[in-house]
Amino acid sequence: MSTCLASGGRPIDLSSVFALPVTLALDTITVRDHTITIHIHATAATTACPRCGTIGSRIHSRYQRTIADGPFAGRALVFKLRVRKWICPSPACPQRIFAERFPDLVQRYGRMTERANQILQSIGVTTNGADAAESFA
Fold it and tell me: N or C: more exposed end of the chain, with fewer CB within 10 A?
């Protein structure tokens, strides 16, 4: 559950507002000018190696991905996703280190959410590419 504290200190559930998968937790929200930036991270304690399927529980390192989403309240919505790199425990696996994946949010190497891709495709098909690009400016 993604929560934030209201002015009275009561938690507010934000998972439905930003449509985040249940496997992600919200860290912070920053609003600047025309951009809303949401910092999120995965909550799973383990993850499977994409090559051999062995469950890894040792973290190698972390890095941050920037992922654009569709407009929200007239502002650009950007996710800053903290991604963990894991060590595959199987000595027979050629994939020694792998990054966790988020298929419910973004494709491998993707820079936009699936929702943003669908919005762009819909606008591009019904009008033209210039209108789609303008929606995300």
Answer: C
Distance CA 104, CA 36 (A): 20
Single-letter amino acid, residue 6: A
Which residue in 73, 2, 10 sits closest to 40, CA to CA?
2
Ramachandran sector of residue 71 (left: φ over 0; alpha: ψ -120 to 50; beta: rest): beta
Give me the sign of the Cα torsion angle 74, 19, 27, 59: negative
The total domain count for the chain is 1
Q: Is the separation of the CB atoms in 25 and 11 below 8 Å?
A: no
Could you tell me the pTM of the whole model?
Answer: 0.76
Q: What is the mean pLDDT of residues 45-69?
A: 95
Find the domain containing 20 and state its range: 3-135
